[in-house]
Amino acid sequence: MKLSDISGDRVFDVIxxxxxxxxxxxxxxAAKGLFKRQKVEKDANATQILTNRLRKYLPQLxxxxxxxxxxxxxxxxxxxxxxxxxxxxLAKLFKDGCDLLTDEAFMSFFTSSExxxxxxxxxxxxxxxxx
Length: 131
What we know:
By secondary structure, the chain is mainly alpha-helical. 66% of the residues lie in helices and 3% in strands. It starts with 9 loop residues before the first helix and ends in a 6-residue tail after the last strand.
């Protein structure tokens, strides 16, 4: 499930629950590198750019924000952090993490300040928002 799939009154509950963990991640320098929009060449391989970015920033993000990520993912899934942690496998984390990184609603928390500043050109790619 993605943040963008949540609807109805549950939207308020989920947003209230994930604001602090998202803020914690957004303030982290490693996270800024992962989510920052960057200018890429026309012929650049977006998959390779994303892979390199994930290799560089994701391990530190996971280590520094494991509890924040569990809160976010459990809220999106609609279960407690204990239930989510108990059900967590490598495959589930990979799928849920990919869902999160390709969720435009989630990614907008990290990229909206850049796009609203007017400093983004047509040649700037939002590598993290496409999957």
